[in-house]
Design brief:
266 residues, alpha/beta, eleven-stranded mixed β-sheet, 11 strands
């Protein structure tokens, strides 16, 4: 039995998103995988107890390829969170998916290398299906909240996760766009999949901050522009989460996420 306070929902904050809860307390959580990115802040949104963790650290000191994703997810698991929401900054690979809009992700493509991306390192071999990695129930709630709050959104999209910390070359970006993927990011993998391995529901919400180098844009991506657009739209992220979280039901009856690892052992 965990000695930590228990929460209903966990939220990972992305680039430029280092705070969510106004009245909160901080707690340091120890895990077998090392320290998470920062202390977790615990507070209330509606009737839900929420844990918030900035995935890059509160001072944005951890680059995407150095994030201890396993510790972050394990810490949320220690707090009892069964649902995880992961807003993140993303570049657009498609005309018509524009800066300031949201994409409610339904698929990922992994183009990272060398990241610690599983809890199952043996000796028991375990193969977990990731055919549908994003929770359909949380996705539906996020879409409805976008409608209710007037946020411009796309109801589905594939994110290709690159290693970072560099941005793509034009050739790479054109390649990703030719594959018909919608957005690009550096943190959705393995964060989303590790939640899956812990039988958690995960919802990825992409805030579009720029057009990637190979999309319909003459300008190369710059970190300054990414952060500028994210800052301008940060209030929309908070509005969406504030509307979405109280509508999450207590019981997980509308998805199969809680059974992701069932029968996965060899």
């Amino acid at each position: 039995m965990s000695t930590y306070p228990q929460v209903d929902v966990g939220v990972f904050g992305g680039s430029g998103f280092y705070d969510l809860l106004e009245d909160s307390s901080s707690i340091a959580v120890k895990t077998p995988y090392g320290d998470p990115s920062d202390e977790l802040r615990i507070g209330k949104i509606g009737d839900k107890t929420v844990a918030f963790l900035p995935r890059h650290g509160s001072k944005h000191q951890i680059p995407p390829h150095m994030i201890n994703y396993r510790a972050n997810l394990c810490a949320m698991n220690e707090l009892g969170a069964q649902r995880i929401i992961g807003p993140c900054a993303c570049g657009s690979l498609r005309a018509g998916i524009d800066p300031g809009e949201f994409v409610i992700l339904d698929q990922f493509v992994d183009r990272t290398t060398g990241r610690k991306d599983t809890f199952f390192d043996g000796p028991q071999v375990t193969h977990v299906s990731s055919a549908d990695p994003y929770c359909p129930e949380l996705r539906a709630i996020a879409i409805e909240s976008c409608k209710q709050t007037g946020i411009d959104y796309h109801s589905k999209g594939t994110v290709v996760t690159i290693q970072g910390p560099r941005f793509s070359t034009r050739a790479e970006s054109e390649w990703f766009a030719s594959a018909r993927w919608e957005v690009i990011n550096m943190t959705q993998y393995p964060e989303c999949y590790l939640a899956h391995e812990l039988d958690m529901c995960y919802c990825g919400i992409a805030l579009i901050t720029d057009y990637d180098a190979g999309a319909d844009s003459a300008d190369a991506v710059s970190n300054a522009e990414v952060m500028k657009v994210f800052a301008e739209n940060l209030s929309k992220v908070k509005t969406l989460l504030t509307d979405m979280i109280p509508h999450i039901p207590c019981e997980r009856d509308a998805c199969d996420c809680k059974d992701a690892t069932a029968n996965a052992e060899m």
